[in-house]
């Protein structure tokens, strides 16, 4: 049994936020989490220029890009760690 820490993990919170779905359409996170328009996010996905892996389920040009929730959680946690390190380094 896992000990209770009182803190939910990033992935658990994302699962709650996205209705327990493990794959999230890139359009759903582009603006709120990346600050990008859907068009810019899609262009970056095509170029492999996003900070996490994305994939298509269908090879159609019109098929949406998806991100696995674990990859998104890893990216968020990495950003938080970097911010914490910068904060500690400046204080």
Report on the structure:
This protein has a single domain (10-90), classed as Orthogonal Bundle (Arc Repressor Mutant, subunit A), CATH 1.10.10. It has four helices and three strands. It has helices at residues 10-17, 26-34, 38-47, 69-90; strands at 23-25, 55-56, 65-68. Strands 1-3-2 form a three-stranded antiparallel β-sheet. The termini are far apart. The mean pLDDT is 93.
Distance between the termini: 38 Å
Radius of gyration: 15 Å
Extract low-pLDDT stretches.
Answer: none
> What is the mean predicted local confidence, pLDDT?
93
Structural class: mainly alpha
How would the blueprint of this fold be written?
Elements: H1 10-17, E1 23-25, H2 26-34, H3 38-47, E2 55-56, E3 65-68, H4 69-90
Antiparallel strand pairs: 1-3, 2-3
Give a nutshell description of this structure.
It is built from four helices and three strands.
Note the main attributes of this structure:
mainly alpha; Arc Repressor Mutant, subunit A; 91 residues; 3 strands; single chain; 3-stranded antiparallel β-sheet; globular; 10% strand
